[in-house]
Structures are given as structure tokens and as C-alpha cells.
Amino acid sequence: MRATTSPDRTQQSAANETPARAGWRVFWPAALGVAVAAGTAYGLSDGRDVAPMVAASGFVYLAAAATGRRSAAWFAFAATFVLIALHKLVGLDATLFMLVLAVGLVAFGLATHHTRPWWSLTLQTVAMFVLGAASLIAVSLDPLAGGLLVAAALLAHAAWDVHHHRTGRVVDRSLAEFCAVLDVIVAVVVAVMALTA
Fold it and tell me: What is the pTM of this model?
């Protein structure tokens, strides 16, 4: 007589999981993106104030590309969160600080050759410095033009997020999903603010 095998524990726990809990596991990056966007938009009076977020969006991808570790993007996000908080609290120029750190990441990536495929580091480096430049330019413009530039850059990066989510390249899909939701919501808030100011 043939022995019956017990079902895999992972399958069993997934089958026993309530739909609400399963939904949270699936949608937590988007939910986190909404929460961070709400915190970013709260009390915002000038769209140019979130310009460092534009540079941060490129920085997290560059960190993953330079180290060859997808999870590095989440650690880089935590670092940019602290830098942007310091920007708001004590006037630290978060964008310039991220650009300096980006140079170090590029040097590290070139020296260690962790990046696969080889062109990934080049592509993420270009994206980082384009977004960094957009961030610096936005704060030098008037509220309308600067706000619209920030919104456009965030929407462009949201498309970047969607592409990386679909292809599964460079960063974890959870990070790409989180960033896409965050970028779109903040971009819409900033664009409306700039156009109605």
C-alpha cells in the first residue's frame, strides 16, 4: 500500500490563510507607498520642497546596481528617508549629499564588478545624475515651473519603476511597486499644487 505524503507546509499555510491576510501580503508595497506619500504630502505648501525625493528615486536603484544586491535598494531608501528628514529639520542639502554618495557607489560598483548585466550600472548611473540634476534645477525655478518639473520627474521615474517591476531587474519587485505608487501620488499632489498656487 502506498503511503500518502503530507502537503508541503508552505502550501498548507497559504491555504489556511484568510483572504484579508493574503491580500495584505500581496499589496503591502502599494499600501506602504500610499502611507509614505500621505506623510510627504501632509503640510506641503510648495512642490519644490519634495525635489530631494526625485534624486532619492534614482539613488535607491543605483545602490542596488552598484552592489549587485536587489535588497540594497531598501537600505538605500532608509538612508534617503533620513537625509530628507535632515533636509527638512536642519537644512541639510539632501540632493547634493546623495549625489556625493552616488559617486562613491559608482566607484564601488566599478571596482567590485558586482553588477550583472554589465550595462546596468551605467544605465542606473545616468538615471541617477539626470534625476539629481532635475532636483537641483527644480529648486532654482519659480514655484510653478519647479513644481511641474518635480512632478514630471516623479512620473517619469514611476514609468521606470513599472518597467523594472515587469522585468524583475535591478531591484526587488516590492521596491519597484512601492516606488511607483509613491511617485505617482506625490507627482499628482505636486502638479495640482503648482497649477493652483
Answer: 0.84
- Over residues 57-78, the pLDDT tens digits come to 999 999 999 999 999 999 999 9
User: Hey, how many other C-beta atoms are within 10 angstroms of the C-beta on 104?
Assistant: 10
Sole residue written with cell 531587474: 169
Q: Is 117 helix (H, G, I), strand (E, B) or coil?
A: coil
Residue 92 · residue 104 · CB < 8 Å: no
What does the domain layout of the chain look like in residue ranges? Answer: 33-196
The sign one gets for the Cα dihedral 34, 35, 36, 42 is positive
Pick from 155, 172, 184: nearest CA to 74: 172
Phi then psi dihedrals of residue 121, to 5 deg: -65, -40
By the 8 A CB rule, do 157 and 183 touch?
yes
